Structures are given as C-alpha cells and as structure tokens.
From TrEMBL, chain A:
<dbReference type="InterPro" id="IPR023591">
    <property type="entry name" value="Ribosomal_uS2_flav_dom_sf"/>
</dbReference>
<keyword id="KW-0687">Ribonucleoprotein</keyword>
<feature type="compositionally biased region" description="Gly residues">
    <location>
        <begin position="361"/>
        <end position="371"/>
    </location>
</feature>
<comment type="similarity">
    <text>Belongs to the universal ribosomal protein uS2 family.</text>
</comment>
<dbReference type="InterPro" id="IPR001865">
    <property type="entry name" value="Ribosomal_uS2"/>
</dbReference>
<protein>
    <submittedName>
        <fullName>Ribosomal protein S2- flavodoxin-like domain-containing protein</fullName>
    </submittedName>
</protein>
<dbReference type="InterPro" id="IPR018130">
    <property type="entry name" value="Ribosomal_uS2_CS"/>
</dbReference>
<dbReference type="InterPro" id="IPR005706">
    <property type="entry name" value="Ribosomal_uS2_bac/mit/plastid"/>
</dbReference>
<feature type="region of interest" description="Disordered">
    <location>
        <begin position="342"/>
        <end position="409"/>
    </location>
</feature>
UniProtKB/TrEMBL annotation, chain B:
<dbReference type="Pfam" id="PF13741">
    <property type="entry name" value="MRP-S25"/>
</dbReference>
<protein>
    <recommendedName>
        <fullName>37S ribosomal protein S25, mitochondrial</fullName>
    </recommendedName>
</protein>
<keyword id="KW-0689">Ribosomal protein</keyword>
<keyword id="KW-0496">Mitochondrion</keyword>
<dbReference type="InterPro" id="IPR059242">
    <property type="entry name" value="mS23_dom"/>
</dbReference>
<keyword id="KW-0687">Ribonucleoprotein</keyword>
<dbReference type="GO" id="GO:0005840">
    <property type="term" value="C:ribosome"/>
</dbReference>
<dbReference type="InterPro" id="IPR016939">
    <property type="entry name" value="Ribosomal_mS23_fun"/>
</dbReference>
<comment type="similarity">
    <text>Belongs to the mitochondrion-specific ribosomal protein mS23 family.</text>
</comment>
Amino acid sequence: MIIREFGLRQGRNALAAPLRRGQQCLRALSTETSGTPVATADPAVEAALQTNPENPTVPSLFARTAKPTRRRPVAPDTTKADWETAQQMRHNLRNVGAQVEHRYSPSDDVTLELLMASQAHMGHHASVWNPANARYIYGIRQGIHIISLEQTAAHLRRAARVVEEVAYHGGLILFVGTRPGQTQIVTQAARLAKACHLFTKWTPGTITNSDKILPGIPVEIVNEHDQPIGGFNQHLMDRRALVPDLVVCLNPLENFTMLRECSQANVPTIGIVDTNTEPTWVTYAIPANDDSLRCLAVIGSVLGRAGEAGQKRRMEDAKNGKVTWDTPSEIKQFMEIQQKRARWAKRAADEEAAASDTSGGLNGNSSGGGATKDSEVFDESMQELQMEVDAANADDVSPQLRKMARRTD
Amino acid sequence: MVRGPAQRQVRPARVYQTVTTLMEHRIKPRLAVQQPVWYKVVESIPPSEILTRPFPPQHRQPNPRARKASRLFQPQKLVYKEDELRKKFYTDHPWELARPRMIIEMDGKDALRCDWSKGLRQPGMPLSGECVVQRQMYLMENVPGITEDTAYDQVRKEFYKLRQEEEIERRIAQEEARMVGAYFGQTFNQVGMKLEDQQFERWKRWATREIEKIQGEQTAAYSSFDASEDPEAADLDVDSLREDLESTANIPPA
C-alpha cells in the first residue's frame, strides 16, 4: 500500500506534465506591448487586432485579465412601502394576542422561603470549598454545598442593621457589584440608600492613591438637612478625595484589591460570601449564593431598604434639631483658621480706626462722623462674616462632606 | 474570572480595634485621629465570629461500630426519604425527565399550597413525576398498613390515567384546530430527517468531486504509459470509494 502510494506520488512528480498554461504565463510575464509577433492564443484579441489596426491596441495583459463586470438587475427600492405595510400590519394586529401582565409582587418581609426560592442556599461544588465557611454550611446535596439559610438570614439582618446605622450617622456608603447583570441591583440599592455605586472595574488605588486617581472630583458641603452650604471653596480646592465609611460588595471574589484597600484605610466592609470565597476579606460576611442574580437582588434590596430607613430617621432627627454626626476634623480646622483671620482683621481695623480717630481729633472734629460711618460699614461686613462662620460652626448647622457626583469611569 | 489570592486577612475583622488603637495612641502627637462615622456602629454591632471550625449539623445516625471518628468536622450529605422514590420513578419512566419543568418560584411557598390527599393534580403545578413522589409520600405516611410498593402502584396508575386524559385532550384539540383550518408545520422528526438528508446530499457531492479529482490525477500521472501498465493502487482506492458511493447514494456505475 505504502509502496504503491510512493510510486504514485513520485511517478507523478517525475512525469509531471509540461507547463499547461505556457502561453498565458508567457503573456502575463511579458511587459512589452509592441507588435512583436508573439503568438497570441486568444482568438478574440487576435481578431480585434486584425479588424481595427488603427485603434490603440489594448495591451494583451489587460485584455486577458480584465473580465466583463456582471451587472445586477436594479431592484426597485421598496423600503418605504415595506415600512408602511409593516406599520399597517402592526396597527391591524394591535389587539391580537395574549395580554402579558406582571405577576411578580414581592412581599415586604424576607423569609427563609423567599431566600430559598431565590436560590440563596446553593453553594459551590464541595471540592472547591473554603473550610473557613464551614460555619455557614448545612450539608452536601448532589455534590454541592448547601448554605444554611438561618445563617444567611442572621448575617443579613446584622448587615442591614450596620447599613442602617451608618446611614443614620451620615456615613458615605458605597455599593459595589462588578459582575455583568449586577448593574441594576447596585444602582437601585444606591438610589434607595442615597449612596454611591460602582458597577465597572475598581481602579486599583482609588483609596490608597486617591490623590492621583481621583483629583478634582466635585465635592460639596451640606448641612444636616442635606442643603449645600457656601463659603468653603478654598477648603474644597485643597481637600483630598473622600473615603467611604462603609463598602458593600456583592462579589468579593473579583474585588480583592478593593477589599484590601478598604482594610488598609480602616473601612468596614460587607460582602456576600459563597462557599468558595474567603470570608476574612470582609468585616461582615453574608453567606449566600453570589452567582444567582435573584439572590443578589434580594440581598441588595434588603440593604438598600435598610439604608433608606436610616436616611429617613436621620432627616427626621435633623428636623427635630438633633444632628447625628460630628463635623469632620479638616473642616473644623478650616473654620477655626477662618475665625482667627476674621478676629485679626477686626482687631487691625479697630486699631486703624482708633488711629484715624486720634488724628481726626487733632485736625478737627468735622471728620468724626465719617470715621464712625466707616467703622459702621466695616462692622457690618465683619458681622456678616462672623454670622457665616457661626452658621457653619453652630451645632444645629454643621457642615458635612458629601460626594456630589458619582465616579464616572 | 479574576480571583484574588486565597489568603486570610486579619485587618477587616479587626477594624474597630485598629481604629481604637489609633485614637488612643497618636502617631503624631498634635494630630488627633477623629472618630470615624462607623465607630459607634461597629462597636454596638460587632462582626460575627468566624474561622472556628464548628461541629457540623448531623444528618445521619452515628455508626456504633466505628472505632475512630471520620470526617468529624466536614459537612454531611443531605439524604431525604423522597430520594429513593424519585430515583425509582424516573428509572421506570425516563422520558418524564424530558418534559420541560418550571423551577422558579415567587415566594417559595408553593409547596404549602399543595394538598396531596386530594390527588395528583395540584393548583399551580403541572403534572409531573414530582407529583407522583409527593403523593406516594403522603400515602405512605398517612394510610395505615400501606407499603411502599402498594403506594407506588396506586399512584402510578392514577398518574397514567391523568397522562392519558391529557394526551386525548391534546389530540382532540389538534383535530379540532385542523378542522377549522389550522396547520402545523413539520414535526421534530421530519425536521431532523430533512437535515440529515441535506447532509447526505452534501457528502454525495463532495465524494463525486473527490473521485473526479483522483481519476484526473491518475490520468495526468500515467498519460505517457500504456493503458495496460496502469498501477492498481489508485484503482483500488477509487473503486472502494465508488463502491461506497454507489451503495449509499445509488449512483449509476460509470
């Protein structure tokens, strides 16, 4: 068999036919277009040469390679008619078919049944588990670990309490979920809790290198009613970027860098911990299935609602004159400096006025009225300044930093 | 998926202690560390204890003969009584697994709305093998003196009857629809046969082309030889291919 094939192949090479398209190759390789008596194998070209000797002869190369273009029949453009037909059809069929109605009506309370229906109990394959999660695991079913829903509910309750209290104390909360499909969950939770959200990649160094990563992010200073206060432009210009007070992470597995930065900056974190996740990366772990969007939606909504409740309580307390947070130390320092400056300016103005008074007394008593008028004008301006500073410093109107715009990646 | 290094972290759980230390012992004497917003919160709601290996929930009877503990701190397998019944039913009726089934629930309380004393048909639940298993479980637990096999036989027959009813209803509905002018396209089997035929036709065209190519090569290689000296090697190859082709595609022999 092999020998036969060998013979076939080698024999074929040995007895290779002479160049079949010798004429064509010759013509293709020749560059001269003169009337040398090259044997033309193309009868059409030969005929053309013979019939029209006066006409400029087409180079044989071109004549051979150029093919007649095949024109497609031009179809009439029916786009408009088609569109109108489709519209007419849609109009005619608008009442035909089933009426799709929304049947999903979530209840207010989160039960163990709801957690199970949203697949919060399904962990990963038993072989990829992290033994640190043994506390949260109920058993093994069909090869996968089953998370104990009682543990989930208990930890979820604890996390919700933390979110509510941090929101009550005016903290900056950040919701992070960077897997595809988590965008809506994260944004909804952030909207409810008046927090920030992140659904794209966490830029490494956003906390630890924020001077380079987040320069010039707009920040505003608000009072306890969340109304912006003016007069802090100078402070805002040389202020560093904000650091969140609480970070909620839906997928800690992909956000190891962020959690590490948070731990370096002493920021408590809440994370959803599946059976293959390391639970020590976060401060508060919620054992649940982080691969199910339904489960994440339930948990994100619970945390968002908790934040909403905290914000609501905070605003009510503010209406009753109770402020639930302290002014940040940088702002306090800035305001002290401003007050000192105002005092110095006032003292200097007083001294200047006294000096002008004595000189006016020496010169004559006609300018006394003018001096008092000047001092009155200055006093008014100083009073305004003082009022502004007082207003900023007073207990009932304390400024608080709030992030204005979300990060735009 | 990007995974971080699977290493333990100490700081996240000890945020409160770290900040307390920072506030008590100033690194720069003039610079006071302000109490963070979350400080009182974390103080009142501390993180839960982790990294201690608990005794897992026990789902099986301990073996009295066991001399030493095995897998003492590992989660145990969850085994339920229904598993055996389910296995038996689906071994006997494997095509029941091919029926589509809805596994999404609204509030997770669908099981509470079923009353298996009433029969196999339950509100909000299509007839399936799960109905048989649940009904059989109910009978085994509530009817005195009934064995597993008896219960299985009884429920199985109820199930067959209901399936037959469904089948008849479907057939009648189809006939009625055909009578008033509905038409149904090809069945799945017909579509499958059509696709298969297309592939056979493709193969036939390809095989014909290959035969022509091989024959052309042979004639080109041995054009200067006598016809009597043709090697049989190539002939064999072509012959076998042609036989294949004729047997499968019924081409008239050349």
